[in-house]
Design a protein that fits this description.
Layout lengths: L9 H8 L3 H20 L3 H17 L4 H10 L2
């Protein structure tokens, strides 16, 4: 695996830095898949549909927009 650097806000930085090594590994894997999908999409509409698909899966797994906001506020 190669390393890249991305810019995030302070809340995201703090949340990531507080993750366990295993949680970071899973998170990095998910981000890697997201980036692969983003750069391999042939057009923007397909990419937007892919993002909607991710949002649906995440919400089905219990992470609603409200819960995400709560987590971000708790870590801020």
């Amino acid at each position: 695996m190669e390393k890249i650097m991305i810019e995030v806000d302070k809340v995201s930085e703090k949340a990531y830095n507080q993750m366990s090594p295993e949680a970071k590994k899973q998170f990095n894997f998910a981000i890697n898949l997201l980036l692969k999908k983003a750069v391999n999409k042939s057009n923007y509409q397909e990419y937007l549909a892919f993002l909607d698909e991710i949002a649906s899966v995440v919400e089905k797994n219990g992470l609603t927009e409200a819960k995400l906001q709560e987590l971000l506020e708790d870590n801020g």
